[in-house]
From TrEMBL:
Active site per the UniProt annotation: 113, 253, 283
Family affiliation: Belongs to the thiolase-like superfamily. FabH family.
A GO CC term assigned to this protein in UniProt: cytoplasm
Protein name: Beta-ketoacyl-[acyl-carrier-protein] synthase III
Length: 326
C-alpha cells in the first residue's frame, strides 16, 4: 500500500491581532487571568470581508508552492472546519474554485478541533487505496464569527487561522505511518454550536440571538481532553512500537497551554519535543495543528526522517492521533 507523504506545508493567519489588553477593555477579565489559565497572549481575527475559504485558499497556495505542485494536479481536497463559509456547499468546493483545482473532488469534514487529524486520515486512506495521488488537506476556521464576545468564559480562548498540507503517494517509508480516531457523542453538549442546524429553524437564530454562539463547559472539557489526548497518543506510539523518546516533534492541537503541558508531562515529552504556539494564535480549532506544523517546518525544526506525532481533541467529542515519518 502506498504511503501519504507530506511534501508541502502552508498557513495563513489574518493580520489583525486581538491582545489580552484589548479584551480587558471589553469584558471583565485580566491579562494575568488569561495567561495563567490558558497561556494565550493574543489571537488573530479575520477582517470583515474575509471568509474561511479565503484563509484556507491562502494557506493552500503556500503549501502548493512549497510542494511544487500545481492546483490542477490535485485529485482530492479535504477540509476540516466547523466555520465554513456556508452550511453548504462544502467550503472545500469554494477553495477548489479559488485555487483552480479543477481535477479534484472536494468535501468538508466536521470533527471540530480534531478536524485536521480526521482529514489527514481520510486523505492517507484515499492514497493508500490508490484512489488519489496528490491530496490537499486543510484545517481552517473563523471562530471569531461564532464566539459570544460577551462571554468571558469562551471569548478569550479562540482565534482565526488556516493551515494546509500537500500529500503525495509514495512507495517509500516516509509519510503517514498510522492514524487512530475516536468519537463519543455522549459528550456532545459539553462543547457545541446550537444555531444553523436542523434542530432549530433558520428563523430561530433571529429570535434567540445567542443561538449561533459556541457553548462550552470548560472544566469538563479540560479533564476529558487531557485523558483522551494522552490515551490516543499512546495508541499511536504502541501501534508503531515506539516510545515518546522516538518522537522528534509532538504537535498537539493548540487548545491551551495548561492542557498541552499536562498531556506532554503524562507522555514524558521534554519541552524541546513539544511545539506550542497557542500563546500567539489562541485555539484555532481545526487549523491549529497545520498552522503549528507550518510554523515549525518553516523555522527549520523538522528534518527528513523525523518522527512527528499529531494529537487532537474537540467537540463531538472527537479525538485522534497521527504518526508521521517526515
Ligand atoms: N477572566 C476572568 N475570570 C474568568 C474568565 C475570564 N476570561 N473566564 C472565567 N472566569 C471566572 C469564572 O467565571 C469563575 O468565576 P467564579 O468562580 O466566580 O464562578 C472562575 O474564573 C473560575 O472558572 P473556571 O471555569 O473554574 O476556570 P478554570 O481554571 O477551569 O479555567 C478554562 C477555565 C480556561 C476555560 C479551562 O476550564 C479550560 O482550559 N478548559 C478547556 C477548554 C478548552 O480548551 N476548550 C477548547 C475547545 S476543546 C479543545 O480545544 C480541546
Amino acid at each position: 500500500m502506498k504511503k501519504a507523504r507530506i511534501i508541502g506545508t502552508g498557513s495563513y493567519a489574518p493580520d489583525s491581532i486581538l491582545t489580552n489588553q484589548d479584551l480587558e477593555k471589553r469584558i471583565d477579565t485580566t491579562n494575568e487571568w488569561i495567561i495563567s489559565r490558558t497561556g494565550i497572549k493574543q489571537r488573530r481575527i479575520a477582517a470583515p470581508e474575509q471568509c474561511t475559504s479565503d484563509l484556507a485558499s491562502e494557506a493552500a497556495r503556500r503549501a502548493l508552492d512549497m510542494a511544487g505542485v500545481k492546483a490542477e494536479e490535485l485529485d482530492f481536497i479535504v477540509m476540516g472546519t466547523i466555520t465554513g463559509d456556508y452550511p453548504w456547499p462544502a467550503t472545500a468546493c469554494l477553495v477548489q474554485k479559488k485555487i483552480g483545482a479543477t481535477n479534484a473532488f472536494a468535501y468538508d469534514l466536521s470533527a471540530a478541533c480534531s478536524g485536521f487529524v480526521f482529514a489527514l486520515d481520510a486523505a492517507a486512506k484515499q492514497i493508500a487505496t490508490g484512489s488519489a495521488q496528490k491530496v490537499l488537506v486543510i484545517g481552517a476556521e473563523i471562530l471569531s464569527r461564532i464566539i459570544d464576545w460577551e462571554d468571558r468564559n469562551t471569548c478569550v480562548l479562540f482565534g482565526d487561522g488556516a493551515g494546509a498540507v500537500v500529500l503525495e503517494a509514495t512507495e517509500g517509508d516516509h509519510g503517514v505511518l498510522s492514524t487512530h480516531l475516536h468519537s463519543d457523542g455522549n459528550y456532545w453538549e459539553l462543547l457545541y454550536q446550537a444555531g444553523f442546524g436542523s434542530k432549530h429553524s433558520a428563523s430561530a437564530a433571529g429570535i434567540d440571538e445567542r443561538l449561533p454562539f459556541l457553548k462550552m463547559q470548560g472544566n469538563d472539557v479540560f479533564k476529558v481532553a487531557v485523558r483522551m489526548l494522552t490515551e490516543v497518543a499512546h495508541e499511536a506510539l504502541d501501534h508503531n512500537g515506539m516510545t515518546s523518546s522516538d518522537v522528534n516533534l509532538f504537535i498537539p492541537h493548540q487548545a491551551n497551554r495548561r492542557i498541552l503541558e499536562a498531556v506532554a508531562k503524562r507522555l514524558k515529552f521534554s519541552d524541546d519535543q513539544v511545539y506550542i504556539n497557542v500563546d500567539f494564535f489562541g485555539n484555532t480549532s481545526g487549523a491549529s495543528i497545520p498552522l503549528a506544523l507550518d510554523e515549525a517546518n518553516r523555522a527549520g525544526r523538522i528534518q527528513s526522517g523525523d518522527i512527528l506525532l499529531f494529537d487532537a481533541f474537540g467537540g463531538g467529542f472527537t479525538w485522534g492521533s497521527a504518526l508521521v515519518r517526515w
